[in-house]
Amino acid sequence: MFEPVLLRNVDVPDGHLLTTYEAGGGYQALGKALREHTPDEVIDLVKQSNLRGRGGAGFPTGMKWSFVPKRAGKPKYLCCNADESEPGTFKDRFIMERDPHQLIEGMAISAYAIGAETAYLYIRGEYGLAIRRLEQAIAEAQARGYLGTRILGSDFSFVVHIHCGAGAYICGEETAMLDSLQGKRAQPRLKPPFPAVEGLYASPTVINNVETLACVPHIVARGPDWFRGIGPYKSPGPKLYCLSGQVRKPGLYELPMGIPLRELVEDCAGGPPPGRKIKAVIPGGVSAPLIPERGLDVGMDFDSLAAAGSMLGSAGVIVIDDSTCMVKVATRIIEFFHHESCGKCTPCREGLNWAVKVLRRVEAGQGEPGDLEQLEALCKGIFGNSFCALGDGAAVGLRAALAHFEDEFVAHIKERRCPFH
Amino acid sequence: MTMREKIEAAAARYPDQRSAIMPALVIAQKQHGHLPGPVLEEVADILGVERIWVYELATFYTLFHTEPVGRFHLELCDNVSCMLRRSEDLLRHLEAVLGIKKGGTTPDGLFTLSTVECLGACEMAPVMQVGDDYHGDLDIARVDALLDRLRATARQATGADLAAAAPPGE
Ligand SMILES: Cc1cc2nc3c(=O)[nH]c(=O)nc-3n(C[C@H](O)[C@H](O)[C@H](O)COP(=O)(O)O)c2cc1C
Ligand code: SF4
Ligand code: FES
């Protein structure tokens, strides 16, 4: 039987308070890490656990940490990526609103491992309740000696500062986040140098997602074998899945990595509304290519979804039923990317602008022969030629919609109207 | 604390004053409701940074407003998960009952209506943000009830209070 750990406290009244967190064994992992392990040993534990980043790309967390130079002669920084702006995704908000100490403990242990004394928690400015709860939790942790100088009698000192974003999706891209933290417009930086070597203020910096950091106390407390024993060998552990769209029970579910998408949608989330059939599912936020109904027997982990031509991404699962026009969905997704394009590179900035115009025309029943070829050509021009993953994500998403639902696009053009309206 | 003190306290968290521009703009916007030129210049002066850096950020990020907005800013999400749960119907309804188009402000200055990208609360789609608060699982009846509550809140404040009042949720 799978035992949820990340969501253990989210439905507990006062789950956001230190007393609740401590009553469930909270901050014991921090004490254990400081007393029993060197920083390198903590990095090893995380490596052995095979924890892969939960922010989208799935990069192995322990390996990322080990890239931080041991002697840099500069301060090192930890950045928590709490920007969470990928449409369909709300998992980090749950942790921050309802169990913020889990994140703070994870940040403290992670900072100890990489040798950082300062962390910035970059949270989207819209998350008012989460910001208030985090401020309260940081104050509580500070008062109890879990943050501050010489934590729990050790030599380790650590502070967490909250930095609020102001409504730009691109801030979630890690190097754009660093520029935003440095008071600039958020635009991605060229890599290398990678942030682990030259990040915030040109100092070694580790950037991790909220859920990734929240896994760390459990790995320290229960051991890497426990973590690796859950789900597939290559991407193990408990995972938060965000279910939304046309399902009966939208919500946040914690289940093992690798659970079949069909089980998640049909059993956990109760399937489509009465009388409806599932048409397609977006498995990992709108950057992840959609999967048509016949493809739902795929495991929800990094490798299985990549093999199926999509990606786990943020695990923001959006369910679309048979009452919905796929041209409309594709148009809305590309409008989003167009709106959020930072404008740094031409393929994304101009290509998405053009794609939106063509898509709107097709959706309105004013499509022309050749429009689909046009869209295909735009995808080709954007994919692989854009500076960051935003452009690529938009192109693969549009391509998947065109490939799987070509008939709907063709019908719009031929009938000169939307067949769903 | 005065605005200057708040900004100086925020700036102490960073090794570089430029990093404090965003937090300073958040503080200034809470104080003034929006960010007209003179406020941006004041922020630059307090931090001792180039004015153009401050202008650059105030115009790049969507949460900063250089133009005034209504007492209540209704920000309705119309991204995919909300669209799939008919946020469009709510937009049409709001436009009709407020007598304004998306982007507009009611003549009494009470409501500004916008659509926004995903609010990160798709489990309660369709969702609308007003000030610091999220309102989810919306339908037309709930939207009407919310508007009534907001109007009542506004009526409670006298004219003088209204001018000085911070946006809701603070
Ligand atoms: C356009 C774009 C938006 C992103 N948004 C987020 C986000 O909101 N939250 C997040 O954790 N990662 C986001 N990422 C991924 C980050 O760049 C980065 O890979 C991640 O924060 C690393 O943390 P992890 O190793 O713990 O996954 C985004 C990437 C791109 C390209
Ligand atoms: S791909 Fe788009 S978001 Fe990324 S750098 Fe280029 S313009 Fe900016
Ligand atoms: S799509 Fe509306 S809150 Fe996410």
From TrEMBL, chain A:
Indicate whether tRNA processing appears among the record's keywords.
Answer: no
SMART domains hit by this protein: NADH_4Fe-4S
Q: Which UniProt keywords apply?
A: 4Fe-4S, Flavoprotein, FMN, Iron, Iron-sulfur, Metal-binding, NAD, Oxidoreductase, Quinone, Translocase
Top-tier EC class: translocase
Q: Does the keyword Transit peptide apply?
A: no
**Gene3D superfamilies from the UniProt entry:** 3.10.20.600, 6.10.250.1450, NADH-ubiquinone oxidoreductase 51kDa subunit, NADH-ubiquinone oxidoreductase 51kDa subunit, iron-sulphur binding domain
Q: Which cofactors must be present for this protein to function? A: [4Fe-4S] cluster; FMN
EC code(s) of this entry: 7.1.1.-
Q: Which residues form the NADH-ubiquinone oxidoreductase 51kDa subunit iron-sulphur binding domain?
A: 327-372
Top-level taxon in the UniProt lineage: Bacteria
Q: Which reaction does it catalyse?
A: a quinone + NADH + 5 H(+)(in) = a quinol + NAD(+) + 4 H(+)(out)
What GO molecular function annotations does the UniProt record carry, in alphabetical order? 4 iron, 4 sulfur cluster binding; FMN binding; metal ion binding; NAD binding; NADH dehydrogenase (ubiquinone) activity; oxidoreductase activity; quinone binding
For this chain, the family text in UniProt reads: Belongs to the complex I 51 kDa subunit family.
Name the PANTHER family for this protein.
NADH-QUINONE OXIDOREDUCTASE SUBUNIT F (PTHR43578:SF3)
Q: What does this protein do?
A: NDH-1 shuttles electrons from NADH, via FMN and iron-sulfur (Fe-S) centers, to quinones in the respiratory chain. The immediate electron acceptor for the enzyme in this species is believed to be ubiquinone. Couples the redox reaction to proton translocation (for every two electrons transferred, four hydrogen ions are translocated across the cytoplasmic membrane), and thus conserves the redox energy in a proton gradient.
What's the protein name? NADH-quinone oxidoreductase subunit F
Please give the organism: Phreatobacter stygius
Name the gene for this chain.
nuoF
TrEMBL record, chain B:
Cofactor comment text: Binds 1 [2Fe-2S] cluster.
The cofactor required is: [2Fe-2S] cluster
Entry EC number(s): 1.6.5.11
| Catalytic activity, reaction form | a quinone + NADH + 5 H(+)(in) = a quinol + NAD(+) + 4 H(+)(out)
The GO terms this record gives for MF are: 2 iron, 2 sulfur cluster binding; metal ion binding; NADH dehydrogenase activity
The cross-references to InterPro entries, in alphabetical order and at most eight, read:
NuoE-like (IPR002023), NuoE_dom (IPR042128), NuoE_N (IPR041921), Thioredoxin-like_sf (IPR036249)
State the NCBIfam families in the record.
nuoE_fam (TIGR01958), PRK07539.1-2 (NF005722)
What is the protein name for this chain? NADH-quinone oxidoreductase subunit NuoE
Question: The organism's lineage?
Answer: Bacteria, Pseudomonadati, Pseudomonadota, Alphaproteobacteria, Hyphomicrobiales
Gene name of the record = nuoE
